[in-house]
## 1
Amino acid sequence: MTFWRPVAAQVSGLRVRLLLAFALLGITTTAVVASGSYVQARTVILQQAQDAAVMSLTDQLTKVYPIAQLPPTQDELELLAQRLSDRESFAVVVYRDMRAQGGSALADPLTPELRQQVRDGDIAWQRVSLAGEPALLIGTQLALDRPDGTSRPSGVEVYSVRNLVPEQQSIDQLATRAWLTGGLSLLLAVLLALLSARGVLRPVRDLGRAARRLGEGDLSTRLTVRGVDELADVARTFNDTAGTLERQVGELRRMESDARRFVADVSHELRTPLAAMTAVTDVLDEEAEHLPGDAGRAARLVSQETQNLTQLVNDLIEVSRFDSGTARLALDDVDVAAAVTATLRIRGWADRVRADLPSGVVARLDPRRLDVIVANLVANAFRHGAEPVSVRLSADPDWVTIEVADQGPGLDPEVLPHVFDRLYKADTARSRSEGSGLGLAISWENARLHRHGERRGALVAGNGPGGGAVFTLRLPRETTDPGGAR
Amino acid sequence: MTRRRTGRALLAGGLLLGTLLATGCGVRPSAVITGRPAVSGPAQGVGLYLLAQGELVLVLRPATGDSAPANNLALLAAGPEVNERRQGLTSEVPAGLDPVTVTSAADQSGGLTVRTNTAARALSENAVDQIVCTVADAAAQTGFTNSSTPVTIVGPDGARPPQRCPIS
């Protein structure tokens, strides 16, 4: 089945079908025309030959008259047979039991049905095959006139045996010519079929190629419209469709980039007032202890929310950098174990995290981004999972793998696909969490930014065998900066 | 659907081609083709009807003078000549047929009457045919009547019913 499908597609392909149709048409037409004219020409040739032979025989026989004696002697019959024989034919004269043959050693070429017809008083002829060669037998009786216009049979029968080989040759020639014509017309039909198949198939092939390019994302693909036929219509429709698609996709992209730029702009605009607010909340924080009751709590709340807002704005700016493709890697040869240890120590997690960091793993990566990723994952584990949180480093020649696991309830299967979505909140009840909701998304983007050839960094979320979420970061050991583009 | 239609077209084409090929190439043997009546021409001499293995056969002899029907009957009664006998010709007409008279009826359709002294009823069928054909031929030759005239043979024992020559 699977083997035959390509073959079947080939056989039922447009080219083969056209070829077959043309060839069939050519063969049929040629066969009908050629064989029709052949049969007609053959009939004409044979009829002319027969008529001429009959005419010649009757002409010769009129010279036999008047007949003065019956029954004839054998000598008379022989003489008559000799007189009627020539190069192309020989005569057989029969009178009752007597028989004379002029020329040719053939035993008895005469057929009983012909003799019967001749005996009945008509000129009759018949084509037969004599020793493999076609021959014409013509027979007549010699009748005697009566004064009243009727005639009486004399009993003498004259047969002429005429070779039809020359006619056979000209008929064979006709046949040869018919075959030749047929072959030539078949050849012509095939050529025409190929030409027209090419004419039809080229636009179709062009169309297919253009559609593929369009599918691959080249929206500027257009076809050259040739002629005014249906295929040209299709090409025109394709161009219109591609044009509309390009316009709409362009519009969408413009809107999207507008939206991103808006986010980036807003984030930047928010930074300045936030800086001022942070300065103020720092003062408020210091004064908070001296403020009584509610005022102190309010001052601390404002300070806390301002910090969160600053974090959110910073994260937004980071994300907008990824979106605009301006994020750059600052690559360095890094001892990964030392870098992770530093990250944990700086944030004061060194004691709370069970770290399994074999030393000596050196990779080329952006240490700042590694720090961001690890900090995010560990913070996440503390925030949503349960302690103990473990960080495990492993490496092979191509990859560096860091696993961050906790002993919490793990990730809900429904949540799993959305873990890295921006501002996605797994727990709707806890809508006001401490995080900005962008941490994992930023980590994911950071991981993907690291790439080397076909290898691309990845961050994968899953659940460990003993429950608890496991985030696995894989980075290529050799990262090359692609030059800004994502 | 398409495949079935293609198949049908192929079949039709094949059948057509097969039919055409079956007509054959070259010169094929044929059945007997019949044309005009046989070649015919004038004859000279006296025509008599003799028998060869019981069949009527026309014999032409050089004319010896008057070719009146009665003379021809006299020649018939004389029997086949030597060379004719050598070729197997016989006659059943008795020698006693002569003398005969041949008269023509007043009207054209009445036919010919042959009067003889031998017993007419005793004549064999072949003899009667010989006489009838010879007389009818001779009468037609002289222009009296046409060759299919009925002939009545009358003898002393009575008359035979009128008869026509079986050879047209």
## 2
Amino acid sequence: MWYYEKKLQYPVKVRECNPRLAKYLIEQYGGADGELSAALRYLNQRYTIPGKVVGLLNDIGTEEFAHLEMIATMIYKLTKDATPEQLEQAGLAPHYVNHDSALFYHNSAGNPWTAEYIQAKGDPIADIYEDIAAEEKARATYQWIINVSDDPELNDSLKFLREREIVHSQRFREAAQILIEERDKKIFF
Amino acid sequence: MEHTYTKYYYPYISPLDPCKPIIKKSYSTPPNLYLGFQPPNLPQYNTAKEALYKGTLWPALYDNYKKYSLRGDES
Amino acid sequence: MSHTKTMPPEYYELLEQIQAIDFVLVELNLYLDTHPKDYDAIQQYNHFTYESKKLKKEFEKKFGPLMHFGRSYSSYPWNWDDTPWPWQV
């Protein structure tokens, strides 16, 4: 089971009301390489992978939910109290007429989240390599969002999330090594 | 061994390309691509707060991404 | 109910300290998932776990429970939703 803790993993500050940025950030909320996909992908793979890497999938999957909450906080703050006119100018009129300012699991082009985004092959090597690729894709997405964002405080939080993708990729690469090598026969450290 | 975390290449430029060409393109090659299986006892950031604001506990895994730092022609 | 309540600077300072300590714990945890025999890292993990618990006790005394489902104590009346939610502050 999970417990909720009433804190964000990293402080999220937003300089100004900016629904245009929220429109881009929704990619990391309900997009293919977003945090929801990541969390569900890893937690789902836990059941059918060797025990040596279950803990890692469990823990990175859990951290992804904390990232999802950070992204939601950014979107919430960027659009809180924005008028329908402001949302329209940001290209969010189609979102507004369907959801008002509610968050929704779709990507920045408006496509709803789908389980097609998360692969589960049941083959440990295929699945871990999928996870490494997913982390690199999420890292790249953060780069592209930072490039179109002019909010320095928001970019600080986005840089944190990008760095986390690097660390996760590092750990998944180690997990792949653990699966490949007969580490039980070796004494390391 | 020191590694750079950005790599560059020069795409073909046609006289018929409508947008202002980016002569030098770049892409990110962060430290996780080079570290291998992380060795024990790597140096850590001095304080928990510093680690938090870097996004990692270990300087060896830190990659400082700056806005447009991948636009080779602008760096 | 929290619409008139503004959190004092001390809330943000203590929260930031907790975020920092807990971040180190996340990093060490993921590291230990792939390095289960690193004795020093385990010692460091346990040390930060102790620090985290201590800080949270202090935070909760001032600002109410951080966790639900019996992971934090409640005063009277039930004070889980007394302080703003993380996305609101």
## 3
Amino acid sequence: MSKQHMIGVFDNEDDLLQAIRKLKEKRANIKDVFGPATNHDLIKAFTRESLLPFLAVLVAIGTIIGAFAFLYYTAVIDYPLRYGGKPLFSFPPMVVILFLLTILVTGGVSVMAFLGRVQLFPGKEPVMIDQRASDDRFYLVMDQNFNPTEVRQWILDAGALEVVDKEVDFSLKTIFL
Amino acid sequence: MISTNIDQTLVTGHKSYGQITGELLANTQGRPPLWWLVGVGLGGILLAIGGWSFYQTLSKGLGTWGLTNSVAWGWDIINFVWWIGIGHAGTAFTIFFLVFRQHWAGSINRSAEAMTVFAVMCAGLFPLIHMGRPWLAFFILPYPNTRLLWVNYNSPLFWDVLAISTYLIMSVTLWYLGMVPDLATIRDRTKNKIQRTIYGMFSLGWDGSLYTYNRYETLLKLLGGLAAPLVISVHTIVSLNLAVSVIPGWHATILPPYFFVGAIFSGFAMVLTLMILMTKAFSIKDYITEKHFDNIAHVLKYSSLLIGLAYATELFIAWYSGVEYEIYTFFRARASGSFSTAFWIMVIFNAIVPQVFWFKRARKSILSLFLVSIIINVGMWFERYVILVSSLAEDFLPSSWTGYQPTMVDIGIFVGTFGIFTLGMLFFVRFIPVIAINEVKPISRIGKEKTVKDSQDE
């Protein structure tokens, strides 16, 4: 579904940051921003922190408990086997294994969660404002606003090169269909 | 250790974003240069030698190697430890410098990580074929089986399997995720339809949305934080393979930190070698400047001091312990006996030669940087040789003492891993931007007064 959008074109992050701050202050609806690079200020002005670290902590705790249960079950309950007269269960070697498994599983789940949340997968058709969005231009895409002329002026005041109106399709598409 | 002024220009030449994209994509465009084709041919020959040796090992068995009853770990484990050591610098570069806010490392990350990935692949090959029957490698994993047995969790060999596979998976993930935006840049600029489809697949439909960037940065920081302890744990666990045993020369608590410093040392040396070759091959002098080489040389100088300290500590503790076997291994077998040549090569190449980097002229000259980086890697190979072979060949019982000679098959497999590494790096520099474009763009603005406007504006 293509829809008409007002797009502010910028060539650097500083002007873009000015524009985002102004628009946020005036409570205008920003759809999204596309660009080749980013920095912390830009992200902070635009959106809230990602919740991914909380998920990671939960997964890590789950992995530690699950892996510990598995190790204890296999080493002590299912087939108790003594190696060199050592105790069936000893904690120090478990630390190494739990440490590594936690990193592996947490890393894997975080990547999967990220890819799922932002809907990136092989064969996805990207939202394409312009080819230069991955080169040297920043595109500030505006949603429906009740005062388009004012919004246009704010964007231009912040230092946009131009403001264009263009149909952009934001629906999820793949190259397979 | 190293202080980088935050306002210092990190990318010289006052470039606009458009210019950076163009210059850094140059290596992926046009016809492949002659040196690249020659390199691929050479890598293919090395790989073929490795393939032949691999075939000999699999068809005839481990008897084709120079191993004996006493020296059960020879070139295979030496090369394994050597490659793992090299494979350390990539993640060290990405993570430690991210944590310490060393922005200058931003333009080296990508190549250092590529080096890590290929070096760890080469390393992983050795334990695999050392099993003799690599198709049964899954026996080392704990899974429900008809033998009703589980693996021995107390064995460092099992930890090693976990450590290396975790490290490989995490490095590949970090490396790949880091280049997704750059693959999207290639996809958007190429006119070739096949190229666009392939890069389109690998770039996962990346569109540079700021919402995506927000989560992406969080994810990279998270993965970085998770991978940072891995850098230390992998080589620590490799050293535990030796330290947990009771062989003189191995049974020491100094081994984990000693191996870790050695890994950082050889990894940085290899990064230096590759960076020098890359600045010669591509026009990326503005991104990888003299300052970068200077910083790496400083790291090498200090880690060389640490290595020297470790050698001295080992000798001192061997004497101080009063254990005759330890004293024999360190003072007779290593320092003055059958392995003295290798021992003194190790000391001179690792602990003494890199000290030339105290002189500014040595850090400025590309030739001296290149030579020292090669010398360090040779020296680090001899270090592993000394540690492994001298302890095994002459241990407690003189009646079981043997010498150790590698066979052609041993050498061939080592040569083959160079083939894997060379081909891997060559394909990397041909199809992927060698410098992370999306990382360099923000740091190119550090130290500039205002943004550079594109001169070819419409």
## 4
Amino acid sequence: MRVSPLMEQVPAPADLLADPHQEIEALKRRIAELEAETAEQSLRLRTKRLKLQEFEAMVETAPVGILVADASGQITFGNHLVEEMLRHPIHFSEKVADYHAWTAFDQHGHPIDPEKYPLARVLEGEDYSEMDVHYQRGDGTKFWMRIIGRPVKDTEGHRIGAAVALIDIDAERKLQDTQRILIRELNHRVKNAFSVVKSIVNQSLRYSTVEDGVRRTLDNRLDAYAAAHGRLMDTKWQSGDFRDVVADIVDRVAPGRVHYDGQAFQVCSGQALAFSMAFYELATNAVKYGSLSVPGGRVDLKWEIDDTEDTPSFSVRWQELGGPLVVRSERKGFGSFITNRAIALETGGSVEMDYAETGVIWTCSMPIEELPEDE
Amino acid sequence: MSEAMPRVLIVEDEVIVALDLSEVIEERGYEVVGPCSRLKQAEHAAREAQIDAAFLDVNLGYGATTEGVARILRERNIPFAFITADAPDGVEFRRTGEPLIRKPASHAALINCLEKWCA
């Protein structure tokens, strides 16, 4: 036990003899001082104890399990929720290597390595560590749990241990799983719906007098629409890159003959579908009657973003080159409805068809609108 | 290939599509085995039936896939193609060289495969 320094200041007996009266007074003062100091210390101690009690109450009311380890990895503290959640007594593991007593597994069912636990990682120097584990409780049941680790530091900022919070995320995980299965099933159904529609058309027209060309056109139009849908589904229905929309169609209808290039640009799902159908019509038309109907003919397809104006716009230009002399078509079929009115309506822009003698030029200019936020 | 009609197994969970594919293939002079719309049925046919080729729809709904059917066909050295509405790189168990036809399947693509296998 350390001796208090106050005792050393007590005068030696030889001095007492000099003026006993005075010395007695001095001693009395010292005793009074000592008493005051002791009172102060015990008050400080009481406050500390109160603080500790407050802290313990806090830890015990927190809706998460809490574990604390010292710098050596020894688990020194855990709140009651740890035991409630895990349904086994707290393992006061002596070191990180002993953490295998905790029965957590990854999503593939492999046990978590002791040194991979957030507690161990933070002790190793990480400032934050998070991990979702499938935990096998004491009674054998399993649940999903999130472990979040942070360092414990002393007043000088030195790392003296680590603490982890254990959170039950089982309900959340189950909900996510259900949602994933639902979305997958929905996508599967929607994708198959196109195949079913095509088969219905095929079967319906099979023994009818409808000419084969009509059946094929119908078939191909449905294919183009389905391809665009498929692409959007791959991107979770939010939007599609314009280049992909173009490539999906023209590389299929006229591989290598449409030269396309332009900036990266995201179109919303409705516009992606509208452009897909329009490019399908333009491309098949070019193959049948336009520049792609002769060897050496081609199409230049360019697009760009113009953000110099107050309202930025996006413009696309389809130009046929090296084809036969263009004959203006007055026919207003499904194709021209798609390349003109449908696109204009869907994009809020303007469409122009120029029957230049050297080749058809189709242009579309649309205002750029903010895409809906990704969730 | 012998004088007998080549026999083609079709696995597809959408009944209308399955029947349509069957007709297209039969019209070209092949004999259709199935079509099977359920996994158990398909695996049984792949293992037991006398077949020369197969078309496998990848997803049979509710998470069931034709991965196991493909494995049996590989063991028996029977040529087959996957049919899927998913992105081509989404079929994890497809091996290089195994054809994949994107849904809706074009009749030409089916016939191309058959002609190559049964030439």
